[in-house]
Amino acid sequence: MTADRPSVLFVCVKNGGKSQMAAALMRQAAGGAVAVHSAGTRPGSAINEGSRAAVEEVGATVEGEHPKPIDPALLDSVDRVVLVGTEAQLERTGAAPVEVWVTDEPSERGIEGAERMRLIREDLAGRVQVLLAELTGDAGHADGAATATAAPSDDAGRPSVMFVCVHNAGRSQMAAAYARHLSGGAVEVRSAGSAPADTINPAVHEAMLEEGIDLTGERPKILTPEAVHASDAVITMGCGDACPFYPGKRYEDWKLEDPARQGVDAVRPIRDEIRARVAALLMDLGVDVVA
Questions:
Q1: What is the four-CA torsion angle of 233, 87, 119, 236, rounded to 10 degrees?
Q2: What is the mean pLDDT of residues 33-45?
Q3: What is the pLDDT of the chain when averaged over all its residues?
Q4: Beta strands 233-237; 98-101: pairing state
Q5: 14 and 40 in contact (C-beta within 8 Å)?
Q6: What are the φ/ψ torsions at residue 159 (nearest 5 degrees)?
Q7: What is the DSSP letter of 97?
Q8: Phi, psi of 162 (to 5 degrees)
């Protein structure tokens, strides 16, 4: 802890992109409540201009920053070390806990340029809010983010299920809504996306209203390792390897048609298949289907 403030070190390979973005977003979110550092295992010569532009769009800044090597003293003095992405490897660890953020990579889906950087920024922003809440003990920070968080259950005896797809705008939202509805609240339910959309698919919203389920209060949320870790069962739907693996969790991958860019007539059979799968899952978990 630095001068009575918690501290964090963000690390990537070149310290010109993701670690700088994470640091900028943390400085903005923390407002001086956290001492923020960033570094690279093989630092480059300049900050990526796309990264700079992406954080400036939301009012954060990398002004005055430049790629830096890791200061060994920081590894022993900060409260948390975050490896942003899986490429960076520490030659040595210090006294601080180390966590790895398996971040979204939109280029793997053919998304490049400014849109790629915006999606990376939103992924990092959600993770930063969760980390800030952990470092400061202020849950209000996490509440402000569209993030799938590991909020404590009001009943530790309830099983918990997480549904994950790419955009968290269709399949995973329908599955989560059915899990809540069909269980009568007997299951703790989360949903998230590896690259969340801005809003729920309108055709999905309409199809669920036909079932008497209103998704108006829902919004797409970013997938976080913390939410996965807090869930007993994790159901993925076309998000590939984006979901982190934790031993002891139940994982299922449901092969379902993607309702994106489809009308309500095409969404209905997807909806009905999801309902049947959720009902079977609940019974397998020992939960009565009450609706």
A1: -20
A2: 96
A3: 87
A4: unpaired
A5: yes
A6: -70, 155
A7: -
A8: -120, 135
**Whole-angstrom Cα distance, residue 95 to residue 226?**
22
- What band does 234 get if pLDDT is binned at 50, 70 and 90? very high
How is residue 133 annotated by DSSP?
H
Angle 177-154-137 from CA coordinates, rounded to 5°: 105
Integer CA distances (angstroms), 32 to 2, 56, 274, in order: 12, 18, 45
What is d(CA 231, CA 51) in angstroms, rounded to the nearest whole number? Answer: 33
Q: How far is CA 232 from CA 190, 252, 255, in A?
A: 11, 12, 20
On whether the CB atoms of residues 227 and 152 are closer than 8 A, the answer is: no
Q: Which amino acid is at 122?
A: E
Whole-model pTM?
A: 0.53
The CA distance from 69 to 67, in Å, is 7
Supply the pLDDT for residue 142. 45
Domains of the chain listed by start with CATH number? 7-143 (3.40.50.2300), 160-284 (3.40.50.2300)
